[in-house]
Amino acid sequence: MSFCCAAESQFGPKVAERDLRRYRRRGADTVTKLILAQLRHWPLRDKRLLNIGGGIGVISAELAADGIASATLVEASPAYLEVARHELQNRYGSRSTQFLLGDFARIADTLPDADVITLDRVVCCYPDAEGLLRGAATRTLQLLAFSYPRDRWYMRTATAVQNFLRWMKGKAFRTFVHSPQQMSGVLERAGLVRAATQGTLAWMVDLYCRVGDIPDALDAREGQYIRKLSAGSI
Ligand SMILES: C[S@@+](CC[C@H](N)C(=O)[O-])C[C@H]1O[C@@H](n2cnc3c(N)ncnc32)[C@H](O)[C@@H]1O
Question: Least buried of 74, 79, 177, 232, by fewest C-beta within 10 Å?
Answer without folding.
Answer: 232
